[in-house]
Amino acid sequence: MWLFRIYQNNMENFITLKNNQTIPLQDIPVLAYPEFLELNISFVKEDANHCVNYYGFPVLDTIKLICCIADDVKQKIYVSSSVIKKDRQEPITSFTARKLCFHLFERELHENFAIPYYDHPWLKPVRYPIDRPNQENTIANYPFYQIHSEELHEVGVGPIHAGIIEPGHFRFICNGEQILHLEIQLGYQHRGIENLFISSKKILQRNILAESIAGDNVVGHTTAFVQLWESLIGFRPDNKLVYERTLALELERLAMHTGDLSAVCTDIAYQLGGAVFGRLRTPIINFMQHWCGNRLSKGLIRVGESNFPFTMALANELTQVLDAYEPDFMEMYKEMKSLPTVLARLEKTGVITQKQAHRVGLVGMAARASGLSRDLRSSHPFGLYPGVLHEPVIKNHGDVSSRIQIRKEEIIQSIIYIREWLKNIPEQEKQPTVLPMPTANTFTISLVEGWRGEICHCAVTDLNGDILHYKIKDPSFHNWLAIALSVRNNEISDFPICNKSFNLSYSGHDL
Q1: For residue 166, what are the domain limits?
Q2: How far does CA 403 lie from the centroid of its chain?
Q3: 3-class SS string, 219-236
Q4: Hey, which end of the chain has fewer CB within 10 Å, N or C?
Q5: Does a structural domain hold residue 12?
Q6: Is there a domain that residue 271 lies in?
Q7: Are residue 305 and residue 345 in the same domain, yes or no?
Q8: Do 255 and 364 reside in the same domain of the chain?
């Protein structure tokens, strides 16, 4: 009840949006920083709410802060803002000291703008942008946490890995084989993609940039971008465009979940599972190549149009692919789960409790494996999802086994959705030849549930309707800390399967 009273008293202090909604920037209330902090802390005290984005951008000699809190029950997004001096010397209170889920957002604000916090518990670099105020902060001198003891030892893994994998460094503190602490250092491939969205002026350039955010989540990030841009220009996609994008999103989920099952089996030396699941992934991505010419779906999703319309012939081909995939998948999964040697490696390994998941602010598949119902397909529906009344798959043990089960059940769920959608392919409607410019001085937010979890793109336009600021948040941004927590008190040999069970994105984090 007290929280409801805070909401009532502060209705003028925030604005309520729906997913993929554009509003005038001036409609976002600007609060003094102490009120801004208290408002957003009060929001996340309620279990149904979580922060989907919190960032800043320069405006003259100030930094404008924007915080977006999603209400997963009411399907609303609460947006508020504050302004602080760019060269502020006096430290301010951090959100993180009160709620850990804000920790990485504030670390990024500190790194980008040198915003001083006097009580942030872990104020370390995040991405090493080229224009960071403190050029002395480099990857080479990252301040790893240390424990000085003759009985403990450190183990470093990466950034160069044994397989074809992106760069990231993992620093373990171990007592014998037992992991006491893990710190994960990223930022090796910071590409400045958000700034490229501003400097690239052609819509096709920006579309291709969206495809390049994370190579294994092309459909998810590109869908977020096109939804955002179409909201900015007031364009409503026809049923065929919505159909194709949602279908591609579930096919991406199907392919990536299958590939992850293969990777987990490989890491526990279960070669049959690794080989069969790997083989089953191939026809799915090969179908995408037949559809649009690229196995990762690049080129498929474009603002306001489709260069590769989905046809009845493609539907028949996809039906055959699923008919061959499904029985083999179920047989292999059943065999894998029947083996005590496999279960011994998966069960009670890499546990994240529901309390930890909530504190860290986990999203997506990892959150659902720990009992949190965070799935934008039901909480902030988009595409075809309002018509399917999506029910998130929830597990409660928070271990590797739960994250494996989530993948299996979501694969079956995706197949059910796809088969149903293939029964009724919308007709192609006439597409506009010229799209309008975005509206000036506006703010837009787009949320998409990718296979890994919650994707959020935000944009602010300037006086001419061009992009003034673009903000991207991959689900990995929320979830990397969970890997470090999950391996505590596990043996170091369990780290690979813990890592693979999350399968987070280095490039999606580094941007």
Answers
A1: 141-185
A2: 16
A3: HHHHHHHHHHHHHHHCCC
A4: N
A5: yes
A6: yes
A7: yes
A8: yes
Q: Which two tokens stand for residue 209?
A: 């940039």
DSSP assignment of 124-147: --SS--TT-S-TT--GGG------
Q: How far apart are CA 213 and CA 476, in angstroms?
A: 12
Buried b (16+ CB within 10 A) or exposed e, 156-181: ebbbeeeeeebbbbbbbbbeeeebeb
Q: Hunting for tokens 């001198």 — which residue is that?
A: 141
Q: pLDDT, tens digit, for every residue of 46-77? A: 989 999 999 999 999 999 999 999 999 999 99
Lookup: tokens for 6: 């805070």
Please count the structural domains in the chain: 3
Q: Are residues 322 and 203 in the same domain?
A: yes
Residue partners of 162: CB distance under 8 A and separation at least 6? none
Angle 177-178-180 from CA coordinates, rounded to 5°:
135
- Residues 271 and 342 both lie in one domain: yes
Question: What is the DSSP code (8-state) at residue 25?
Answer: G
* CA dist., res. 347 & res. 349, Å (int): 5
CA trace torsion 476, 460, 223, 450 (10° rounding): 20
Structure tokens at 489: 């008190």
**Residue 132, both tokens:** 């960071």
Residues 246 and 380 placed together within one structural domain of the fold: yes
Which residue from 367, 387, 351, 127 is spatially nearest to 242, judged by alpha carbons?
Answer: 387
CB 459 within 8 A of CB 232: yes
204 and 179 assigned to the same domain: no
The CATH number that applies at residue 114 is: 3.30.460.80
Q: Which pLDDT value is given to residue 12?
A: 78
pLDDT in tens, 270-292: 999 999 999 999 999 999 999 99
The CA-atom distances, in angstroms, between 57 and each of 47, 65, 190, 281 are 29, 7, 18, 41
* Pairing mode of beta strands 178-185, 169-175: antiparallel
Report, in this order, helix, strand and coil percent for the chain, each rounded to 5: 45, 15, 40
- Distance in angstroms (rounded) separating the CA atoms of residues 466 and 468: 6
Whether residue 179 has pLDDT greater than 90: yes
Mean pLDDT of 487-503: 93
Q: How far apart are CA 392 and CA 372, in angstroms?
A: 10
Tell me, yes or no, whether 254 lies in a domain.
yes
Radius of gyration of the chain (CA): 23
| Max Cα-Cα span within the chain | 72
Q: φ, ψ for residue 148 (rounded to 5)?
A: -90, 115
Burial of 88 (0-12, 13-18, 19+ CB in 10 A): middle
Do you know the residue count of the chain?
Answer: 511
Nearest one of 366, 390, 370, 363 to 447, comparing CA atoms: 363
